[in-house]
Amino acid sequence: MGPDAAAVRHDEDHHVATVTITRPPLNILTWTLREQILAAVRRAFVSPPVRVVRLISGAPRAFSAGAGIGEFRDSLRPGGRPGTQHDRAPHL
């Protein structure tokens, strides 16, 4: 199992959904983690009682250090995974 397994938790309490990212030490965003975050937020959007979605860090040092640059390198290659600045998650 990789470091992204179970790195995103989704909880609901009344009208508030909480999405917690826990990928210590710095919550570096990988493609898998990004997909897990989007899935959790989408899940909250379709839950009728939820009115607020909050995104928090479970890592002790930072909310997020940003994207893993090794994955950006791969996305720039022909046939690489899409992303970078052109992928704006319009499907929420």
- Strand order of the biggest β-sheet: 1-2-3
Nearest-integer average pLDDT? 80
Beta-sheet strand percentage? Answer: 15-25%
Global Rg: 14 Å
Question: Which key terms come to mind for this protein?
Answer:
GMP Synthetase, Chain A, domain 3; 3-stranded mixed sheet; alpha+beta; disordered C terminus; 3 strands; 24% helix; 20% strand; 92 residues
Report what the structure shows.
There is one protein chain. The protein is of the alpha+beta class. It has one domain (8-77): GMP Synthetase, Chain A, domain 3. Helix content is 24%, strand content 20%. It has 2 helices and 3 strands, in the order ββαβα. The protein has helices spanning 31-45, 69-75; strands at 8-13, 16-21, 52-57. It has a 3-stranded mixed β-sheet with strand order 1-2-3, covered by helices on one side. Strand 2 (16-21), helix 1 and strand 3 (52-57) form a beta-alpha-beta unit. The chain is globular, with a radius of gyration of 14 Å. It starts with 7 loop residues before the first strand and ends in a 17-residue tail after the last helix. Residues 84-92 have low confidence and may be disordered.
Short description:
The chain has 92 residues and is α+β, with helices and mostly antiparallel strands.
